[in-house]
UniProtKB/TrEMBL annotation:
The chain crosses the membrane at residues 363-388. GO terms for molecular function: ATP binding; calcium ion binding; polysaccharide binding; protein serine/threonine kinase activity. Residues 439-720 form the Protein kinase domain. It is a single-pass type I membrane protein. This is Wall-associated receptor kinase-like 8. Residues 312-345 form the EGF-like domain. It is found in: Membrane. It comes from the Eukaryota. InterPro entries: EGF, EGF-like_Ca-bd_dom, EGF-type_Asp/Asn_hydroxyl_site, EGF_Ca-bd_CS, Kinase-like_dom_sf, NOTCH1_EGF-like, Prot_kinase_dom, Ser/Thr_kinase_AS. Serine/threonine-protein kinase that may function as a signaling receptor of extracellular matrix component. Binding to pectin may have significance in the control of cell expansion, morphogenesis and development. It comes from Olea europaea subsp. europaea. GO terms for cellular component: plasma membrane.
Length: 766
């Protein structure tokens, strides 16, 4: 196996070489009858002492017995050098020859006055050895360069490396050098069969008159424990002194990679020269196959020398079975068995031996039931974790929507005012989903430009209407919350009460009281209605709507402009009391402002022409829209119709009839039949004033409510009053607008109106 280890691993290995006993290289053995050791080193086959004991002459080790203890040597190809063998591993051999590994050059003090010169030259051609890339070239000296040339005939590659040892302008009072560091450099070499290292003097190239110190040295070997060492620079003036004082420099071994043959495993396995013995397998020397050759290794469960044959390891010697089990050795492995009355694998590192307490059939049933219960528990745990994750995700989403829709702002406002807290209820989406059967389509009351309205019932049995608005502008969240708070405080008999809101969805949900008898539009224009509107009912509804608008315009803490007054936004309850709804386009107006500038919004036929031209909505814009509703009550006609030819709108046609003094041609026949002429003309003149193209000339809603109340009172009171209106004598009565929260409406008609079947709330677009 080829060694490509990093430097720290090499150091660790070399440390073991010194520390381990002589037989530390596994279970290495030699050929029978051959000497197995030379001194302290075991010589494993394919190496051997003597030509008959090694695989071939290249693996022959010479044992020099003149030393005590004897030393093993490996001659190089030319036998000019003998390398002392320090250690042999499964893939490498470690050698030492300070003369072969060392280059040295000493110079005189004059220019180019060289007194000694030496180079390093190593060749291992036509041998199973290759210079390992774990070796390094270490150069020591000042102003010297070690230039290495490397050649591999097996891969047909040539390589080179350079290392310059430099002392700079080192003054003489600097005594120490370090390796690597001042006066020392290192460079690595690549794998190959040939290496030449030459020392070159560089002081003249660097502009120096002479060298700082006379001698320089280069050495090839693996650094190992000598990775770093210090030396005295003054010793560089004398080669003998330097080498004697720095034995660690020449103590670095040379590392060679060895291999069997020149071919890889596939090419050699069927050859008669195949080296791997019994119970072993082949490993390519170089996985990239740039180099041929291979190594052998014992199979798992076997030990010994893989080149001579591996023998089975008796695992039962170190019994790996439980104490009361039986171990049986097998080739390359072992088996454990349990005694009677036990079951299991019998291994210490397995399940061991377990007493048999029940029959095998019962055991199998128990195991099956246990596995089934365990599987069900696993499934239920996974399901619970999934549900927990989903609930957490939904909760997080609700929290994000709550913040996005201004929930934090609403909480801040309600926490500082107990009155607001009592009147503004925050509903959860869970409550509203339950109330509407998850917003079932069968619960839809109507759809319009501002959203969809659903009918629902709370847990206490209260019927509500839930409006699911369209997306709101995130930049207007603060304004939206302020309007919710304000509208929830609007308590008026003729205004649909906002009960609260839900902010846990992508679009806010508004919750209103439910009004059961449909819209004013339905009762005016549906001729098949079971309860046709009489003149008295129309007058009553007109007064109720007027008073509600007067309350919004002038009796709230901030004036509220509805901006979309039309007959479809006027609802009738079970007693046909009118209630204004749909504040989707409403705006709160500061007390010191008289108008709001916005994009034109509203329903065609009801929009104030002045607002349409100026984009400035005032309270008189609501008055204009109210005037159109009043004309609807008088005429029973739609505000726009394709049958109106050139006039198009009802308001235009009504004004033309008033100017031509032929009101009877446009007024509803039932109104003509049931009303008094004075009442009809009084209401018609008031409608004409409401529709004045000049907003400043229109009456206020408070004035409209009072004038309509006077007309109504003229129907039922004959007592002469101090108040007179157009020659009609009236009684004094409570006709003022009550703007406080305890406002109530009392009508003589409430007692004569019979309740009919409740009509669902519907929203229409014109």
């Amino acid at each position: 196996m080829q060694m490509h280890s990093v430097l720290p691993q090499i150091f660790c290995f070399l440390s073991l070489v010194v520390a381990l006993p002589p037989n530390a290289v596994g279970a290495a053995t030699t050929k029978p009858g051959c000497q197995s050791r030379c001194g302290n080193l075991e010589i494993p086959y394919p190496f051997g002492i003597g030509s008959k004991c090694s695989r071939n002459v290249h693996f022959n080790i010479n044992c020099n017995t003149s030393f005590d203890p004897p030393k093993p040597y490996l001659p190089d190809r030319s036998e000019s050098y003998y390398y002392e063998v320090v250690n042999i591993s499964e893939t490498q051999i470690f050698l030492k020859n300070s003369e072969a590994q060392l280059a040295m050059a000493c110079y005189g003090m004059g220019f180019n006055n060289k007194t000694e010169n030496s180079t390093i030259s190593m060749t291992f051609l036509e041998s199973p050895y290759t210079l390992s890339d774990t070796n390094q070239i270490t150069s020591i000296g000042c102003d010297d360069m070690a230039m290495a040339s490397q050649l591999s005939y097996l891969t047909n590659t040539f390589d080179g490396s350079v290392c310059a040892s430099y002392c700079g302008g080192t003054p003489y009072y600097v005594h120490n050098g370090s390796c690597p560091g001042r006066g020392c450099c290192r460079t690595s070499i690549s794998r190959g069969e040939y290496l030449r290292v030459e020392l070159l003097d560089m002081h003249s190239y660097w502009g120096r008159e002479r060298k700082h110190f006379r001698c320089s040295f280069a050495f090839v070997g693996v650094t190992g424990d000598y990775d770093k060492f210090n030396f005295s620079l003054s010793h560089l003036d004398n080669s003998t002194t330097f080498l004697r004082s720095n034995e660690e420099f020449t103590g670095m071994p040379l590392v060679l990679d060895w291999r069997i043959g020149d071919y890889n495993c596939i090419e050699e396995q069927n050859s008669t020269n195949y080296a791997c013995g019994k119970n072993s397998y082949c490993i390519n020397y170089d996985t990239s196959l740039n180099f041929g050759g291979y190594h052998c290794k014992c199979k798992e469960g076997f030990e010994g020398n893989p080149y001579l044959g591996c023998h089975d390891i008796d695992e039962c010697i170190n019994n790996r079975c439980v104490s009361y089990g039986t171990c049986t050795n097998t080739p390359g492995s072992y088996n454990c068995s349990c005694p009677d009355g036990y079951y299991g694998d019998g291994k210490r590192d397995g399940i061991g031996c377990i007493p048999i307490l029940v029959s095998h059939s019962k055991l199998a049933i128990g195991i099956g039931l246990g596995a089934g219960v365990g599987f069900l528990l696993l499934l239920s745990t996974c399901f619970c974790l999934f549900k927990f994750h989903q609930k957490r995700k939904i909760k997080k989403r609700k929290e994000n929507f709550f913040k996005q829709n201004g929930g934090i702002l609403l909480q801040q406002q309600t926490s500082t005012d107990e009155c607001i807290l009592e009147k503004t209820q925050l509903f959860t989406i869970k409550e509203l989903e339950k109330a509407t059967d998850n917003f079932n389509e069968s619960r839809i009351l109507g759809q319009g430009g501002q959203g969809t309205v659903y009918k629902g019932m709370l847990h206490d049995g209260k019927i509500i209407a839930i409006k699911k608005s369209k997306l709101i502008n995130t930049n207007q969240v603060e304004q939206f919350i302020n309007e919710v708070v304000m509208l929830s405080q609007v308590i008026h008999r003729n205004v649909v009460k906002l009960l609260g809101c839900c902010l846990e969805t992508e679009v806010p949900l508004l919750v209103y009281e439910f009004i059961c008898n449909g819209t004013l539009f339905d009762h005016i224009h549906d001729k098949s209605s079971d309860f046709p509107l009489s003149w008295n009912m129309r007058l009553k509804i007109a007064i109720e709507v007027a008073e509600a608008l007067a309350y919004l315009h002038s009796a709230t803490s901030f004036p509220i402009y509805h901006r979309d007054i039309k007959s479809t936004n006027i609802l009738l309850d079970e007693k046909y009391v009118a209630k204004i709804s749909d504040f989707g386009t409403s705006r709160l107006i500061a007390m010191d402002h008289t108008h709001v500038t916005t994009q034109v919004k509203g329903t065609f036929g009801y929009v104030d022409p002045e607002y349409f031209q100026s984009n400035q909505f005032t309270e008189k814009s609501d008055v204009y829209s109210y005037g159109v509703v009043l004309v609807e009550l008088l005429t029973g006609q739609r505000p726009t119709s394709l049958a109106m030819q050139e006039e198009k709108s009802l308001a235009t046609r009504f004004l033309l009839c008033m100017d031509a003094e032929n009101l009877e041609t446009i007024v509803d026949a039932q109104v003509l039949e049931q009303s008094k002429r004075e009442e009809l003309f009084a209401v018609a003149k008031l409608a004409q004033r409401c529709l004045n193209l000049n907003g400043k000339k229109r009456p206020t809603m408070k004035e409209i409510a009072m004038e309509l109340e006077i007309v109504r009172m003229s129907q039922t009171h004959s007592t002469i009053s101090e108040t007179k209106y157009q020659d009609i004598q009236l009684c004094k009565s409570k006709t003022r607008l009550m703007a406080d929260d305890n406002y109530t409406w009392t009508s003589n008609y409430d007692n004569i109106i019979q309740s009919s079947d409740a009509y669902p709330l519907e929203i229409h677009t014109i």
